[in-house]
Amino acid sequence: MTDPVIRALDESDAQLFDAHPDPLNARAAHERTTHRPDWKRVALRDGTVVARGAWWGGTDDKEPVNVNWFDVAEGEVEAGAELLRSAPWQVELEINLPGDWQDHPDLAAAAETRFAAARAAGYELLVERFLYRWTPERGLPERPGRLVFAAEPDDAVFFDALRRIHAVTLDAHALKAIAEGGLDQAAQEELDFFHWCPSPREWWQVARTPEGDLAGIHIPAHNPSGPTVGFIGVLPEHRGRGYAYDLLAECTHFLVEHGAEAVTGATDRGNFPMAANFAKAGFPVVRERINFHPVARTA
């Protein structure tokens, strides 16, 4: 067997990316995603594509922010690993899977091949996430009416709230940021992401009790794929009252009132309270996402 040839693509040969089976139906997860041809790479063995990866970033980004499409043929773990480790960008890897992938042996085997290639390339599992999608036939979630919502133009208010929210969090990305640089880094990463999103800054809202106490925040957003529940957070001293559902309901209504015909959302698999709130609000799980992050670069 010959060694795999790693090839970066451009507009002239971008069709090579499509010359690979799609058993996990990744294409369905990227119907609204635009991938740049020059951020796509393939591994070829004897002229056949045996692994492929599409790196992704925003319209104005000079470098990709993640790999969000990664496929590896059965028996080609090393080719998939070399595709990742030889890339000029060592960024987070997202593997998107059908919601029922664990119930089907063929899908589970295909997923495990991708996981093995990621690990061989020096990536480690960060978190497994549920991906949700609300559509109008589900009906809008009822607004409990317990909180008062308002826009807040001062980023410092959100920064302080995010620090307090992340002081007691189940979110794996926030915990990673805290381990690297403390609560300030975790809060700033959130702010940077939502400033990066193409949706208006004026959409960000705070939620107060009738007495005027800040209870939480919610950030309706548009990511490059469409309307999404960007962030839901309840301050620690106000937890235990079910306010996360109130925030989620308000965020959904807000996006629909601003033209959304569908709304996506996501939460870590281990965040059982938030998963229950998504289910209560009429958001079914449509896919799962496995996030790996690079922790070592193998020469």
Automatic annotation (TrEMBL):
InterPro entries, per database record: Acyl_CoA_acyltransferase (IPR016181), GNAT_dom (IPR000182)
Endpoints of the signal sequence: none
Database matches in Pfam families: Acetyltransf_1 (PF00583)
Top-level taxonomic group: Bacteria
Annotated N-acetyltransferase domain residues: 163-299
Protein name: GNAT family N-acetyltransferase
